[in-house]
Amino acid sequence: MKKYIVIGNPINHSLSPKLHNHWLKQNNIDASYDKIKLEEDEIEEIIQDIKKQKVAGCNITVPYKKKVIPFLDSLSLEAEKTQSVNTIVFENGSLVGHNTDIAGFAKAIENLQFNIKGKKVFILGAGGVVPSIIFTLNKMGVSDITISNRTRQKAENFKKEFENLKILDWGDIPVFDLIINATSLGLKNEEIGLDFNNVGRNKLFYDVIYNPSETNFLKKAKKLGNYAENGKLMFVYQALEAFKLWHGIEPKVDKETIRVLEND
Ligand code: ATR
After folding, report:
1. Which tens digits make up the pLDDT trace of 170-218?
2. b/e map of 153-179 (b: 16 or more CB within 10 Å)?
3. Of all protein residues, whose CA lies closest to atom 2 belonging to ligand 1?
4. Which of 88, 239, 246, 261 has the lowest tally of Cβ within 10 angstroms?
5. Residues near ligand 1 (Cβ within 6 A)
6. Contact call for residues 220 and 196 (beta carbons, < 8 A)
7. 48 Cα–ligand 1 center, Å
8. What domains, with CATH codes, occur in the chain?
9. How far apart are alpha carbons 91 and 181 in whole angstroms?
């Protein structure tokens, strides 16, 4: 039986095994998918396991999306541009790093029927998934992107790759149509500590976190008369793209898929 895995640290919150195992069963594929909590010095060994075909394929989550790159043979264009890999495929004897977060985020936004063209976007955080979000937003034709991170330098670093970025100090809030919380605060149910009282109403507040399904950030957004959306569909669609790469089949996304994830 082929074995697929997701690696990260922490990994407990990951719903990838549930989703992939559901699709594997639905498509009669004889394989399993597990999550593995990994220390940084264990990355190389696990990647060698893919080369030896002890592991058939691997997803990567926080904080290793960049750290796996030195151990791979090549990168897809998107992975190269964002320096972020969330899916490893072993093809023709070679380890290839892909970034399916980009397609995942694009499909999630398209699904919202929120016309993003020409909109002003404000991103909070500068972690592993942010380059994929910036890449996608640029491709979708937003008018401008402002980013703010507690550690300002990490946001400044993105300007090397994405010249059009504006950077603000943590605590400052610009005029925006869409705000994306890409910090890890929601995972631990922590408060973001920013004042959204003066941003107006009917803005879209998006949290990349999907577990818990409603972070404090999203609760506050709703209370102030804004739209709130979590990262569940982004998660589902990045997984769908990884599934397609490994198995050559596009799995179904329907009510049952969402129910599988909610059945915690
Ligand atoms: P990594 O930075 O290793 O890629 P991540 O989970 O993708 O990990 O990113 C965590 C993000 O949440 C970072 O932007 C982090 O800010 P710092 O760069 O300053 O660490 C942000 N974050 C985590 N805890 C935070 C807090 N208490 N207040 C504000 N931002 C926080």
Report:
1. 999 999 999 999 999 998 889 999 999 999 999 999 999 988 899 999 9
2. eebeebeeebeebebbeeeebeebbbb
3. 127
4. 261
5. 62-63, 125-129, 149-151, 154, 183-185, 190
6. yes
7. 29
8. 2-99+233-262 (3.40.50.10860), 102-230 (3.40.50.720)
9. 35
Question: Which of these, 187, 155, 158, 181, lies nearest to 169 by C-alpha position?
Answer: 155
Say whether 223 is catalytic: no
Distance CA 263, CA 154 (A): 36
Ligand 1 mean position, distance from CA 92 (Å)? 37
Of 68, 18, 5, the closest CA to residue 42 belongs to: 68
Band (pLDDT 50/70/90 cuts) for residue 220 is very high
Distance 185 CA to ligand 1 centre (A): 7
- What is 21-40 written as a DSSP string? HHHHHHTT--EEEEEEE--G
Please tell me the distance from the alpha carbon of residue 105 to that of residue 20, in angstroms, as a whole number: 18
